Please model this.
Amino acid sequence: MNSLLPLLQQLENHISNFEKTNMKVSNSTVGWQIDHCLLVINGIIGQIEISDPLKYQPKWTFPKFMVFTTGKIPRGKAKAPKVVIPTQVATQEELISKLAAAKNNVLKLDSFSENQFFNHPYFKDLNVKQTKKFLTIHTKHHLKIIQDILK
Model:
């Protein structure tokens, strides 16, 4: 779980670049990438927190197998659900506030039952352990995009 905290620190280090963009890499800004990551982290952990572990139904999916095996999300292949797409340009203050919430939420993950879960649109039910792995892979994916924007 603590592998997420250094990634949150990396996101925090990029907040000062929140307005930067590189159309060759992405149509979005660094701030959008950060905001999206924080919406994902906070939203997923919120769903896990209210989930009923007795309703967890593990299911094998090919996309989950590929992403979890390679540790990479292919760029431009998946479409994020609307709920985790930033609708407005976040200010630095808003990003800092969402980041603080994410740090608190990440620390809560270890207090959940192992089979509390959230339902991913491509991977289906992910329990706490799988969620930690997914959030790590997802955040690294967007950090790489941020690095490419800033090149």
